[in-house]
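Example 3.2
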Amino acid sequence: MDSINVIAMAGGDGIQSYTNNSSFQKMAIDYAKPLIQKSIADSIQPTNSPTSMTFRVADLGCSVGPNTFIAVDNILEAVKLKYQNADHEAPKFQVYFNDHAINDFNTLFKSLPPNREYYASGVPGSFYTQLFPRASLHIVHCSYSIHWLSQLPREITDKSSRVWNKGKIHYVGAGEKGVIDEDKVDSFNVPCYFSSPQELEQVINQNGRFNIEMLESLPKLEVSNISSIPQVLCRATRAITEELITEHFGHEILDEVFGLFQEKIVKALDRIMGTDFNLFMLLKLKKETCLD
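Structure, written as tokens:
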């Protein structure tokens, strides 16, 4: 594995931005809300000791837009309710918004809710590295982020490897060339891996520092206006992958690529809508474990 792969979602607040094209991700956060509230109700122990009067929450891979604020509000709402029911004074809240340094933190912090009940800080850097002092956080949240790999496996970039893409990526006009160089196509990779529940359990058990408190599927995402899905899904995909495509192929092909992509979505809509799958996982640090 080589250097850390640095990727950011489309910044700003324009028509193609992640801010305005992450509604599917918001639905998953909404569906996870009752599970988060139940988890906090079952695991947080309110206390008024001086050392615990600041409650620290981190959102890893926060990106830009309203979703990170919604996720944080869901967590803090549950924590405050837990303290209220225990007749304890609620703590002060410190929230850390983390993403790569190239993330559009300017837009993120310009859109901070003005009536927020927490102190906000930005923490640039990969969450595959140590970002915080040991034992400094109470809750860590991460949504639609951990499927991004820290690096591309070296074998994928080796032309002599059996996993090299040569001949495995099909595109219209492949026999003609002209618009996209064949070598560029063969060397293009999206550094994501969508693991199964069994794979997640195996990795966490191998790590040995956490207990899996909950692992279940979220309800299938429901969209009221089916006719809008091709455009919504196309824009969402562009907001996520635009930087990857631009860096590898250049920005000149973006409009044409995603115009064709939307046509493909229309033709395969039934199959696409039938493959939605989201997991909710709650991990708890083992008491005997200290993170380095």
